[in-house]
């Protein structure tokens, strides 16, 4: 038979505090040999739960119905995962099916060498000698592309980079050569350039080992890059199942259509950028007419340096190194970079949360080098901040109205939260939330609603500068689209200047007038969207743009070749 | 989060069904949440504790005699009398009615627990909050002092303090305060530690950073944003400490540092006086005060332990859905608690 997994009419319910919740509702799908099946959907669509049921990895609170038939590696027989006993399940895991987790740094045990952890699978399924296990571990590390595997096999997880750790997790999943690998968001925690490498590795698995892969992801770009067939899930149901090219070319279900529409693509923002530039020119003239200095920037950084102090006897860490940029009134500067590039540090420095250690940073003409909190406080009213994780940036015990009223109360615009309620209602309306949501607690709102409330709080004092630190990276793609739209609308209406920090080039391109690319604390490129994205001059920017998977399988295949040539190029030099 | 695509008429996340004020009270909320064995433990603990509190409140009505009463109209009770109709639990070596002293003892116990826990909670929380949020040298000094107090055997410390505080006095309130304050000193570091650890964790939360961004002052952040979030685990420590306070009080009384029998009834003291009775076959003087201590501590500990389990989602058991009724249950859940979409969304959020 040709199917590795056959799921028939699978339903999974969870017992929660609020009663029973049905996460997966009558899902049927099959995975063929040597194929990459992508299960896409937003958070809560049941995609993860479905995939985990293939390994029998559901929590105790789950109740499962239906059948999950998994073929053994040699194809001689099949097992129904749902009816297996725990010890039989252990037999199946690792040999017939294994899993790659989302976060490689938590999937590896920090106190054991990676070689030991890879060999753990071998030990669990039969006796192997130490030397043999080590040989196998070295072999598999070589296959997943870890350089010098003979040496690296004895290293600990912290001695590897994020991408390498994910390679090791994949190696551990591969060591018994299972017929199927379930990869749960394998690249979500990784930077774009690293993501491209991991996707390459997964593609090699399919082509060279004939391993079938169930890829769970919410990133349509990743789907276009890797998948052969796609299953779209929505609220526990399969709404569409199609060949990858068919799905992207002519989606059948309206949900799939909307999902694909919501994915930001590079180049969409140009029209808006031009519009905004024209509007700003008008505003500048108006201001010049009343005699105000039109050109004073809201933010000006020159040779900005930020060091984090090291421990005793060790050198500190330089997070931001000699960065210069300026943000004009009403202008949106997009700051792009990978994790550890210093983009969040710059945002925090602008808000006075992190002290700068060198160079100069002025916010509204206020020098941030060696600033005192007391003198800076009045200026805070003119700076709004939107945080990355909307769930964590609200005090769980305050209602949304109280939280939005906080800035008004702190800066003396209102006596008490109750006093500010009228203004709060206006703000909630501005971010398209019903007034009644003011009486709710943060956990009673969805992620997108919370982030809109967060925007309401950010603009409560009508600041002339808004700092948005990855405001949409914790949101689903369709929610992200709406929040970004709202952000653009508010920016038009209130005319604030903004620093928009993101790791996603396409998102930044949608909103920003100018884009600055950070790499390891240094500003490698700065310019308008058209300049940076169409004619990148820095090799890192070129690699970053080429690494970004586009949600179109045909175009993505072409881009893949381009990326390979860029990489070969940079290696050759 | 999923529902963003759905037209806005669809309610996305309704507030969870709670039964208003009562449903949100700390202990009652857990009572509603619990199922099975955990519920049994909690209910048993609550029942015992309720009886304990009721007896304390109505001691003057329940107890047939006063705690220091040696005689009634019929003459002296007599020492070490076995249980009889007049004295259902007999009398002690000092000639007191055992039953009355056990009943009055609950009052003393409750007073000591309340005074001790209230003092230690207020001081402990304040110190923990300030030291955790401000940090610096104050934090370091307080941590060292807290550790030093930890290093003492708590009963020894309580004994020393009770001598220092009471100075030989033996009035009801003098005795109670001596016992309570000596327990307080032992407990303050516990509250201090818990609140400080929570404060340090919460200090790094984005919502505190966001308050800082807005320019909120340090006291405002401490009391509006940190304090209430840091005190979530307190009901648990509170109950567990109450039983410990009771044991410390009994220990003090047993060792002779408690409250004089003429000032108030105290179980530990009675046990002490019953020591020599046990060998001569007089069981009632030791059994009943002992039982009272065991039951009171058991009740409070049961409440504390089950609150502890219920507060942790990984330890909390939930009502399992039967496979066949799952559809019906899911639809009711949808109509009463939360939209079907938002519930699994919350689920995945937890996992992430």
Condensed summary:
The complex is a heterodimer of chains A (573) and B (352). Chain A has 573 residues and is α/β, with parallel strands linked by helices.
How would you describe the overall organization of this protein?
The complex is a heterodimer of chains A (573) and B (352). Chain A is 40% helix and 24% strand. Chain A has 573 residues and is of the alpha/beta class. The model of chain B is unreliable at 1-19 and 323-352 (pLDDT under 50). In chain B, helix 7 (154-166) packs across helix 8. Chain B has a domain at 64-297: MetI-like fold. In chain B, strands 1-2 form a two-stranded antiparallel ribbon. Chain B is built from 15 helices and two strands. The two termini of chain B are 14 Å apart. In chain B, a hairpin with a 2-residue loop joins strand 1 (71-72) and strand 2. The interface between A and B is large, with 66 and 56 residues.
Index terms:
A: 573 residues, alpha/beta, Rossmann fold, six-stranded mixed beta sheet, 22 helices, 40% helix, B: 352 residues, mainly alpha, 15 helices, 2 strands, disordered C terminus
- Structural category of chain A is alpha/beta
Name the quaternary structure: heterodimer
The greatest inter-chain interface is formed by: A-B, 66 and 56 residues
Radius of gyration based on Cα positions of chain A: 26 Å
Strand content of chain A: 15-25%
What is the residue-averaged pLDDT of chain B?
76
CATH class descriptor name of the domain at 264-382 and 463-536 in chain A: Alpha Beta
How many helices of chain B does DSSP assign?
A: 15
Shape of chain B: globular
Terminal CA distance of chain A reads 49 Å
The Cα radius of gyration of chain B reads: 26 Å
- Tell me how many strands of chain B there are: 2
**Percent helix among the residues of chain B?**
55-70%
| Helix fraction of chain A by DSSP (H/I, runs of at least 4) | 25-40%
Q: What's the pLDDT, averaged over the residues of chain A? A: 86
Structural class of chain B: mainly alpha
């Amino acid at each position: 038979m040709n199917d590795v997994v056959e799921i028939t009419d699978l339903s999974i319910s969870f017992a929660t505090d609020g009663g029973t919740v049905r996460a997966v509702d009558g899902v049927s799908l099959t995975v063929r040999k040597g194929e990459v099946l992508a299960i896409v959907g937003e958070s809560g669509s049941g995609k993860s739960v479905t995939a985990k049921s293939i390994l029998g990895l559901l929590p105790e609170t789950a109740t499962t119905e239906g059948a999950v038939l998994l073929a053994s590696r040699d194809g001689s027989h099949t097992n129904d995962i749902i009816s297996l006993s725990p010890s039989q399940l252990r037999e199946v895991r690792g040999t017939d099916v294994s899993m790659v987790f989302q976060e490689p740094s938590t999937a590896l045990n920090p106190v054991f060498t990676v070689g030991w952890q890879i060999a753990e699978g071998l030990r669990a399924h039969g006796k192997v000698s130490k030397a043999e296990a080590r040989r196998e571990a070295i072999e598999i590390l070589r296959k997943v592309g870890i350089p010098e595997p003979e040496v690296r096999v004895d290293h600990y997880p912290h001695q590897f980079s994020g991408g390498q750790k994910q390679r090791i997790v994949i190696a551990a999943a591969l060591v018994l050569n299972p017929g199927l690998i379930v990869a749960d968001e394998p690249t979500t925690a990784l930077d774009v350039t690293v993501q491209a490498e991991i996707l390459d590795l997964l593609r090699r698995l399919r082509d060279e080992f004939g391993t079938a892969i169930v890829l769970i992801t919410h990133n349509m770009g990743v789907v276009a890059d890797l998948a052969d067939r796609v299953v779209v899930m929505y609220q526990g149901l399969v709404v569409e199942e199609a060949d990858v090219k068919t799905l992207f070319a002519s989606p059948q279900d309206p949900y799939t259509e909307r999902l694909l529409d919501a994915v930001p693509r590079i180049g969409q923002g140009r029209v808006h950028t031009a519009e905004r530039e024209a509007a700003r020119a008008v505003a500048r003239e108006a201001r010049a007419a009343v005699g105000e200095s039109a050109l004073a920037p809201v933010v000006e950084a020159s040779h900005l340096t930020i060091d984090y102090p090291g421990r005793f006897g060790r050198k500190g860490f330089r997070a931001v190194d000699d960065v210069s940029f300026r943000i004009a009134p009403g202008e949106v500067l997009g700051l792009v970079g990978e994790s550890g590039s210093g983009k969040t540090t710059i945002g925090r420095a602008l808000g006075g949360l992190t002290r700068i250690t060198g160079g100069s940073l002025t916010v509204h003409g206020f020098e941030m080098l060696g600033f005192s909190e007391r003198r800076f406080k009045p200026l805070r009213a003119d700076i709004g901040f939107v945080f990355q994780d909307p769930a964590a940036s609200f005090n769980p015990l305050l209602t949304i109205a109280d939280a939005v009223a906080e800035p008004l109360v702190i800066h003396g615009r209102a006596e008490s939260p109750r006093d500010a309620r009228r203004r709060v209602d206006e703000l909630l309306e501005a971010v398209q939330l019903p007034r009644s949501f003011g009486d709710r607690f943060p956990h009673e709102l969805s992620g997108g609603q919370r982030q809109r409330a967060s925007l309401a709080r950010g603009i409560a004092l009508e600041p002339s500068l808004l700092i948005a630190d990855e405001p949409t990276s914790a949101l689903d793609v369709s929610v992200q689209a709406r929040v970004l739209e709202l952000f653009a609308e508010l920016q038009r209406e209130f005319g604030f200047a903004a620093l928009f920090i993101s790791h996603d080039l396409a998102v930044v391109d949608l909103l920003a007038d100018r884009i600055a690319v950070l790499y390891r604390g240094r500003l490698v490129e700065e310019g308008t969207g058209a300049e940076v994205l169409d004619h990148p001059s820095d090799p890192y920017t070129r690699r970053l743009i080429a690494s970004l998977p586009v949600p179109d399988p045909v175009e993505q295949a072409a881009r893949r070749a381009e990326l390979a040539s860029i990489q070969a190029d940079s290696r050759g030099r | 989060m999923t529902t963003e695509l759905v037209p806005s008429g669809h309610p996305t996340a309704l507030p969870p069904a709670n039964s208003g004020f009562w449903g949100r009270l700390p202990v009652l909320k857990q009572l509603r949440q619990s199922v099975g064995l955990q519920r049994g433990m909690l209910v048993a603990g609550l029942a015992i504790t309720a009886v304990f509190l009721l007896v304390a409140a109505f001691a003057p009505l329940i107890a047939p005699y006063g705690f220091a009463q040696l005689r009634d109209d019929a003459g002296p009770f007599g020492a070490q009398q076995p249980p009889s109709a007049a004295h259902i639990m007999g009398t002690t070596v000092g000639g007191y009615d055992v039953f009355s002293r056990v009943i009055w003892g609950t009052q003393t116990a409750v007073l000591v627990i309340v005074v001790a826990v209230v003092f230690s909670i207020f001081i402990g929380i304040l110190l923990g909050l300030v030291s955790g949020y401000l940090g610096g040298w104050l934090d370091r000094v307080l941590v060292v002092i807290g550790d030093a107090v930890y290093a003492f055997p708590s009963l020894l410390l309580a004994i020393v303090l009770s001598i220092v505080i009471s100075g030989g006095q033996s009035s009801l309130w003098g005795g109670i305060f001596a016992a309570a304050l000596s327990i307080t000193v032992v407990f303050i570091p516990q509250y201090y530690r818990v609140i400080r650890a929570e404060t340090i964790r919460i200090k790094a939360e984005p919502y505190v950073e966001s308050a800082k961004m807005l320019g909120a002052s340090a006291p405002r952040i401490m009391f509006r944003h940190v304090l209430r979030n840091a005190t979530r685990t307190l009901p648990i420590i509170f109950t567990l400490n109450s039983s410990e306070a009771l044991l410390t009080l009994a220990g003090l009384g047993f060792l002779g540092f408690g409250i004089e029998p003429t000032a108030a009834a105290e179980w530990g003291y009675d046990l002490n006086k019953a020591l020599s009775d046990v060998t001569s076959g007089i069981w009632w003087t030791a059994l009943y005060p002992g039982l009272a201590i065991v039951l009171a501590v058991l009740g409070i500990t049961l409440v504390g332990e089950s609150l502890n389990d219920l507060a942790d989602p990984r330890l909390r058991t939930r009502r399992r859905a039967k496979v066949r009724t799952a559809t019906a249950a899911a639809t009711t859940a949808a109509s009463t608690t939360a939209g079907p979409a938002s519930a699994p969304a919350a689920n995945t959020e937890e996992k992430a």
